[in-house]
Each structure stands twice: as structure tokens, then as C-alpha cells.
Amino acid sequence: MTLFEGTLRKWTNVLQGWQNRFFVLDPTQGKLIYYTSTQHLVKNEQRGVILLKGAHIGIDTEDGSTFTIRTDGNTFHFQARDTEERQKWIRNLEDAISFNTVNTEKFTLSNTTLFQSKILEADQFLQLLIKEVDELEQLSSQLQDNHQQQCYNHIIISAKRLIEAVKYSIVSLQLAKVQMNPLNEVKTDADCQALSAIINTNKIDKIPDTNNRNDNETTLSSTESTVRNDTDDKNTEDNIPLESLNIQTDVKTDQTQLPVSSNSISDDDDDNDFYDADDVMDEPVLTSSLTDRTRKTSQTNNSEIPFEQYEAACEESPEEDLAPIDGTIISHLISQARISMDLTKITLPTFILERRSFLEMLADFLAHPDEFVKIADYETPRERFIQVVKWYLSAFHAGRKSAVPKKPYNPILGEIFQCSYDVNLTPSSNTTIVKDGPVPWASDNQVTFIAEQTSHHPPIASFYAECPAKHIQIDGCLWTRSKFLGLSVGVHMIGDAIITLLDHDEQYVITFPSAFGRSILGVPWFEMGGKITITCEKTGYTANIDFLQKPFLNGKKHQITGILYGPDKKEFCRIDGEWNGIMNAKYSDTKISEVFFDTKATPVIKKIVRPIIDQDTNESRRMWKDVTYYLKSKQLDKATGAKSFLEHRQRTEAKERHENSLKWETKHFSESGELKWTYANKLSKRLNSQS
To answer: What does the alpha-carbon distance between residue 688 and residue 691 come to, in Å, rounded to a whole number?
Structure first.
């Protein structure tokens, strides 16, 4: 580190006020030395020395030139020429303070905060790099020239190698920060052992060289298989090693091969490659159907826990944190998988599970069912489209039961969730129970919902909802892919849903944003991100909604922007605000801006679920009742055991089906295309059969 010097004004006392002093910052010694003038500097006549070990810097937000240094109980006031000069001094002082504090025996809170901020800064740059590479891949896929596409592919492969290295470096830095804290010796040892284990387990001695590939191996569509094959080849030529430092020692540097995952481009990007942590990978031979006995394998209640206690555990209430927020989650992830591995392949620790199945979480899209049924009430296509957008944007805030990102249970194949909602429609004399509907005990003036896990590889959840009194229905399929991104976890929701207004013969196709768990090594928080579309082919109305991720510097969380277009492709409305707060709309024709939807002021309508004791054994709350109860009562070992029982049973049944060449048959949904299922007895089908 080099010296930094210059003139600053220093506050001396009330009588003399601000005085010019010449300062020399010596970061290697951890000292800020000052002189009365440069002449005294030449003579080495020091006026004073400020020790920077453990020092704190303060900034006056109302004055762009002053700042303070607080150390050893004393506070020193300084004034630079302008804001730019002050920033230079602060930057150099922070580096000097960091350098000297890190090399002390005790790791201070000030330096921990600084180190963490630098790690987060690196992670933000990583996310930007990932985004740019994704855009480069999209551009490459549109190229017609094979030579250009080959050049792009080489760049993409190299960039992804860099991404993998940076991801692992960030995790290593985080664990290094914990290593320096003597108060965390026990946890540090476990973290370092986990990191070392995964380095040794997933280490690849060589990275394949892509310079000598044949042209037919370099197209984007074959990039993953090419890299995978080259990695497995023992005779690859001109390979390049990639190394990292061992973080277990402060001085000794043990050169260890850094894992680049089992491929250079994630070999987990294969859309058909899904399995749980202990799954046996089957190549299914599908010829005949399962019996009802196989579908509804009984889960006996071996405990003496009353069903009333199970019901209490399933009550919708804010989730409690069952474990301290520290590096435990990350060390658990590192001990199981490579960085960027699909988290579908990982058995996550029980304490980060949310007390409900993913199928029940899907029902939260109808947390405001009154907004859903209102769609059918409007007379014009424009009004109906605006209401579709309003209902859609109202749906996301209700899905979060905890401020800390948590994961719902992975549904078991054949699992079902059913519920209904009262929407205060005026009862009519012909209100009846819809026995052939998705919820056979609900009436035709309620909104009813059903979801079924229709596939396990990949894990696809199919869902359907309707309100017979309003002649409206929604039908969709959704599955998630989770990626470990260093200090974040990204969950990409794949699929779509179709809202059908039977009286108007209109269909609205909607897509879904991604979700991100940020800062999972510090204080985790959740945000949505990505662009979605809402389209109606018949009327020509479309909407582009952008769920904005928090900017790198400053900026607000949970922001959205949206533009609505009419049949003439012209913009007629803009929407902005917070998807979990207040959203505003401004219309082009009237120039009027108004509150579009206020999630804080609009109460959520509670779902109606029949008692667990009356549910079938494959219904979500009954199937997961033991896991939910033990999580609620903070008996994590028993919750883990109950969860493992269900997962083991699912693997055993899958193995039996494979050995007997049996095909799983869904109960309520029928296959309607590749990786797509639709509800078999939709409202539209029932009405057509009656006419």
C-alpha cells in the first residue's frame, strides 16, 4: 500500500478554529501523521499522529466537505476542499483502517461491517455479470452465421468459468471473515471443513480447452453436452488449471484446485435432470397404469397427537425463525452441492422450511379472490384487462409468511391441495353445491381452488380455480428451478396460466417472475425480479410488467414498473410502485394518476380448508401434518425424521413403478402437451356438456 498525502483543514479549538495542516497517510503503519506545513514535513517535525487501528469514520451529510475520525475515545474533525477530495480521503482512510484492523488479533465490529460490505459489493457485480452473460446467450441463439455463433460460444464458456470462480471466491471470503472472529471458532471449523470437503469432492484437475473443438461441437445448442463430455474425457488436451487459496490458515497458503462444478457451463441446466438428494435416477419405461392403492399409499398416524393440534400448527400466521441467521445455511449448501447447482437436488435443512406445501402456496394467488371475480363484471375489454392486471399484481405479497426467505415443502407426486374462498356474492335462490367441481363441498358462488403434483421429474404443479357464478376460470402449470448464486438464491418460476372469461370468450395468458433470496450469509431478505407478460389474443390488449431488483447503489426494494398497451399497440397506462405496498397507475388519455392497488390497506381473504381429519391421505395438510406440527413446536429432529419418511416413501414407490414398468396417472389433471397438464373437468367443459 502506498502513502497518500495532501492538505486538509483540521479543527483545533474554539479560539483558533480551523487550521490548515499537511497530512500523510501511512497505511502500512496504520497512522495519519500531520504537520503544520510542508516545510515541517521536510524537517520531519510532526504536529501529531492519529492511530487508525479500530478507527471509525463519520460523514456530515449536510456538508459535502467535512468528516470525522473517531479512535481511542477521541474525535478529530477535518474539512476537505470539496466533496470529491473528501471522498478520496475517506476511501484511502477506509482501506488503511481495514488493513490494520484485519491484521489485529481481534476482529472489530467496524471492520466486520466493512468487510461484509465489500463482499456484498462483489456479489452485486457478480449478479451484473450473470445478467450480461444471459443476454449474450440470448443474442448468440439468434445469430445465423455459424462462425459468429462459434465466437460467441467461446466467450460465453469463458465467462461462465469466470462466474463459477467468482461465486466460490465470494463464499470463501465470507467464511474467511468468520474465521477471523475468535468468537466463532466452533462454527468456523465446521464451515471450513464443509468448504474443504466440497472442494475435494467436486475438484476437477483440468478445465477443458475449447480451442480445438470441431465446428459441429460449438453450436450453442450443444455447448452443455460438449463441455460435459470434454470434462469426463481423461485424454483432454491443453487443459488449464484453476487454483484458489486455502482459507484455513492466515499465513500458509495451500494451493488447492478450485471446483468449476462438474462442467464449465453448469451440467445442471439440463431441463430433464431433476432429482432429490437421495433419489435413484430412473429411466422410466411407461406402459401401464397404477392402481388406486399405489396412488394413495396410507401414511398412518403413529403418534398420539390430537388432530386439533395438527390444525393449530397449520393456522395461517407469520412464520417464526427456528434458527439463528448465520453461515449455517451456506455451509449446509456447500457441503452438498457445487455453486450454481440446481437446489432441487439438495436436501435443505429443516429449519428453513415454511410450514406448508408449495401447492398451498400457489393458492395465495387467490388471496384477493374478490378482485379475481370482478374481472367478469366489467363491460369493456379495456376495463376487464385492467382488472386482470390489478388482480395479478395483488397476488404476490400474500405469498410471504416470513420476513426471512423460506422454502415450502416440495410436493409429493400425487399430492393434492383443495380450498375455497367466500367472496360475499349475493346469495341466490339457486345456489347449489358443485359436486362435480374442483372442491365438491363448495357452492357455485364461491371461488374454488385445486392443485396437484402431476410430475416429479421435473417437479410440476398443476393448478385450477373457478367461480361458477361468474363464469370465470384459471388453469395453469408451474415448476421452479433454484440456483445458488453465491450470496443469493434465485428461484425461476417456469410455466404460465390462462384466465378464461366464458361469457366473453376471452383468454388471458400470464407468466411469472423469478424470486431471489438475498444476503443469505447475513440478514436474508426476499425480492421478486424479472419481466412478465399478460396478453389477450382476442382483444389485442397486452401488458409488460417489470419486477425490479434492488439497484447496486441506493434505490428501493420491491419496485415494479408496467406498461399497458391497447389493440393499436399504443400505451394507455403506466403502473409503478411496490408490489408489496402501494401501486399507482397513470392513464395516458386522462393524465390522471391514482392508486392502482394498496396491499397494505386491502385485507387478505382467508382460504377455507376442510379439517385435516376429514382429508384424504394424499392431501397436503394431512400428508405433511407431522412435519408441520414438529416445525411449529420447534422439534427440528422429529420434523426432519417425518420429512425423510415421506421422501423415502416417494423414492421407494418410484423404484417400484420403474421395476414394474408402471406409469403414474394423475387424478384431477390430464396431460395436454409437453410438460403441461390441464384440469380434466373444467367449468367450460361442464357448461358445454349441459348445453
So the answer is: 5
